[in-house]
Amino acid sequence: MFLNIQELLGNKSPRKDNFDFISISKTITNETMGQLDKNLFQENEIREVAAQPFIDGVGPLIANRFRTQLSIDRIIPFSTDFFVEALDNSFIDTVPPNFSWTEGQQIIPVILSSDFMEIYNVFAPGYGLPQVSEATASQLIVNINCFGINGKQQTFKATIVAYSDRINSVLVPESFLTWANREFGNTTDVKATRLFLRTKDANDPALLSFLDSKNYKVNKDKTKFGRVKQVLQGIFTGLGVFGLMVVLLALMLFSFYLQLMVARSQDSLDLLMTLGYSPSWLSKKVSGQFVPAYIIIVAVALAVTQLFHWLFHHYVLADRPELSPIVSWIVVLVAILLILLSIITNHRMIKKLLLRIPGV
Q: Could you tell me the residue ranges of all domains in the chain?
C-alpha cells in the first residue's frame, strides 16, 4: 500500500517543462500587521529558500511601490486602482518576443492572468459593462496612470500581449517596474512580497515540511496531494514499523522454541557429536527442517498480498492504468529477503546452541 500511494500521488500536479511552479508568501498575523519589513522577503531568506535541494529556482515577484490606476477610455468606461508586478521571464509560461520595455517607451506590454479576465467577465454585467473575449481585450489600449509620492504623475499606454495560466497577476517588464519604482516611488530597494518557486515536485513532502517550518503561505490546492501523501506515508510507515516489530518478535519466539528443542534433544545430539558429527553439519540438518516451513509461510503471505492488491486495484481504483494489478518487484524482493533472513538467523542460532552443549 505504501508503494501504491507513492505511485498514485506521485505526479498529480499540473507540470510544465518538467517543473512545478508555486508561489509562496509570508503569513501575516495580528502581530506583524503594519510591519512591512517582517512581511517581505529579505535577501538572506531568498538565498535560504534557493539553497534547498528540492527547489530548482526562485523568482522574486516585485510589486509597484506607488499608486497605479488602470483605465480604458474607449468602448469600456472602466477605471480601477490596481497593482502591477514583475518577474523573471524564465518563470512565466507565455513570454512573447515584444515583452520588453526601454526608458522613454510610451507603450508598456502587459501579461494578464487568465483568471483576471474571467473575474472581469463575471462582474461586468452587474456594472453595465460589456463582456469581452481575450482576443478583443488584446486589441484594446489600456491606460496605466502612475502617481508618485512627490506629486508626479504620468500616463502610459499598455496592451495585453499574452495571458498567463500560471501567475495570478498583472505582469509588466522588470525594466519598467524598476524604473517606475525609482521614478514614482522614490525607491530602488524593493523587497518581494511573493516568491515564485520552480521545483521538480510541488507535492514533495520535504518541500511542504520546509514551507511549514518557515510558516510560509502557499496555495493549499496546488499542494493538497502532497499533504495527503504526508499523512498516508506517516500511517503506512507506522504500520511498517509495527510489522517489523512483529517479525522480530516472531524470530525471538522461535529462538525460544529452538532452545527448548535443543535442550530436549541434548542427549541425542551429544551422542551424534561423540560419533564424530560436527556442530556445523548438525546445525545445517536441524535448521534445514524448517526451510520448507519458511518458504510456505512467506509464499502464502505473498499470495494474500497479491490478492488484496488485485482487489484494491480492481474494485477500489476501477482498474486505473497508472497502477499495475501485479505487486511490485520490491514486494517480491522483501519476501525473498525475509526467507533468507529466517534461514541465516536460525542456522546461526542452532549452531550457537549446539556449541553450548557440554563436551563440544
A: 66-85+98-165, 265-355
